[in-house]
Amino acid sequence: MIEGAILTARVDGDDRLVEADAAFMALNERAGGAIGERLATPQLATIVRLARRLQILVSRAVTIADSDVDLDCWVRATPGENGVALAVSPVRERPAWRPSSATGSVPPPAGADWTWETDAGLRVQRLLVEAGARHGFDAAAALGQPLTKLFALDSDEHGVLPLLEAVAALDDFENQPASLREGGARVMLAGHVKRDTGGAFAGFVGATFHQMVVPAQEAVALGSAFNRRLDTILRGPLGRIVATADSINAGVDGPIDPHYADYAADIASAGRHLMGLIDDLADIQAIERDDFTVEDEGIDLADVTRRAAGLLAVRAADAGVAIDRGDLDRPVPAHGEFRRSLQIMVNLIGNAVRYSPRGSTIWLRLQNDGDRAIAIVADQGKGVAAEDQERIFGKFERVDTGEPGGSGLGLYIARRLARAMGGDLTVDSAPGEGARFVLSLPAR
Questions:
Q1: I want to staple 77 with a disulfide (CB 3.0 to 4.6 A). Which of 51, 87, 228, 312 is the partner?
Q2: Cα 137 to Cα 15: distance, rounded to the nearest angstrom
Q3: Which of 105-114, 330-339, 383-392, 415-424 has the lowest mean pLDDT?
Q4: What is the rounded distance in angstroms from the CA atom of residue 17 to the CA atom of residue 41?
Q5: Ramachandran sector of residue 371 (left: φ over 0; alpha: ψ -120 to 50; beta: rest)
């Protein structure tokens, strides 16, 4: 197969191959297909079905097994009235993966106190211990049982279960914290992957290391570890989901049904909401630490407010809400950290935009009050009742959980940040009369 060549074909409404060029025909025949039959290459058949069902152009990379080579290809499927047109561009040809003919015995990790072995279902096949009574369990009774009947697995310092990640990745693992179900002794596990003669996952050859329990090491903040893990594993995939949904909505690969464009916009919006939640959780992890501090950079609160309003100008225009900036050109020096102050103002103005009716106005005002520099965000929304005005600054608190909105973390984080900078964040409001949020920082 020549790299860079374009293979073309067309299938009918029943996904049967009706015409193809010579190169595509040869590829399909080597996979056992023929004219008048369904495509013989599963990857191509899947893309064709997707394009036909959605009635949109589908374009993606696939790897096709072709005799003794693997073809990395870019496939483009274009639906039409009489079926789907295919264009396949081979990008790279490489030798096909071949499993080793024999795996041999896999040695356990070195230095173990005792070792074990599982099958692909993580059932214990072997236990090599000096004496079952010494370890607090019956070694013979453990055979054939799931590994988790022998060990209770714990998360590591990153909130991860290394053994489960190893199962997902079919890879070796180490430093899996655990305790024996019988007796509760603390141990650390490690393991090497076993494979059968076909190269498939066949279990682990594992090792057990006894631990000296150090109380300080045991007191890991699970919530913080969980938040860090969320940030690590979710931010990248969510970013790709949002980008892909935006591309579909924009019709980058060609026009699509308006309903699907709307679905894509909803997906992108939901993805951005989740990204915001990840940011909030990361902030909570930081601000709730005993050693959390902010920098005193010497800020201009007027500049911070101007920038926050600029960041939300498009959203406000889309919502039909006007932002009255008043006199933001007069400097208002204050003590605080620029990034955190901007975060607070973006949250306050963003909330005002979200809860303001179309055609209303948001007012931004600055003033000095003795040793305080003050920024005010006032809106014409439905307001906040007196009994709710303190509650809305609580973690995960919202006045009306039934209406669209944020996670209930923004105001909690904003007040914590304001107080960390030596200031405060308060609200003055009444039902039906809008809300007036006041950020005060030490004047400079």
A1: 51
A2: 59
A3: 105-114
A4: 11
A5: alpha
Burial class (CB in 10 A: 0-12, 13-18, 19+), 366: buried
Q: Give the residue from 338, 269, 342, 270 showing the smallest Cα distance to 305.
A: 342
How sure is the predictor about 25, in pLDDT bands with cuts at 50, 70 and 90? very high
Supply the pLDDT for residue 131: 41
B/e letters for 170-182, b = 16+ CB within 10 Å, e = fewer, are eebbeebbbbbbe
Nearest to 74 by CA among 57, 96, 56: 57
Q: Is 90 exceeded by the pLDDT of residue 431?
A: no
CB 261 within 8 A of CB 253: no
- Start-to-end CA distance of the chain, whole Å, equals 72
Query: CB–CB of 305/375 below 8 Å?
Result: yes
Look at residue 215 in the predicted model and tell me its pLDDT.
43
**Whether 139 contacts 234, CB under 8 Å:** no
What distance in Å separates the CA atoms of residue 310 and residue 346, rounded to the nearest whole number? 10
**What is the 3-state secondary structure of the chain?**
CCCCCCEEEEECCCCEEEEECHHHHHHHHHCCCCCCCECCCHHHHHHHHHHHHHCCCEEEEEEEEECCEEEEEEEEEEEECCEEEEEEEEEEEEECCCCCCCCCCCCCCCCCCEEEEECCCCEEEEEECCCHHHHCCCHHHHCCCEHHHHEEECCCCCCCCHHHHHHHHCCCEEEEEEEECCCCCEEEEEEEEEECCCCCEEEEEEEEEECCCCHHHHCCCHHHHHHHHHHHHHHHHHHHHHHHHHHHHHCCCCCCCHHHHHHHHHHHHHHHHHHHHHHHHHHHHHHCCCCCCCCCCCEEHHHHHHHHHHHCHHHHHHCCCEEECCCCCCCCEECCCHHHHHHHHHHHHHHHHHHCCCCCEEEEEEEEECCEEEEEEECCCCCCCHHHCCHHHCCCCCCCCCCCCCCCCHHHHHHHHHHHCCCEEEEEECCCCCEEEEEEEEEC
Q: What would the two tokens of residue 260 be?
A: 């699907």
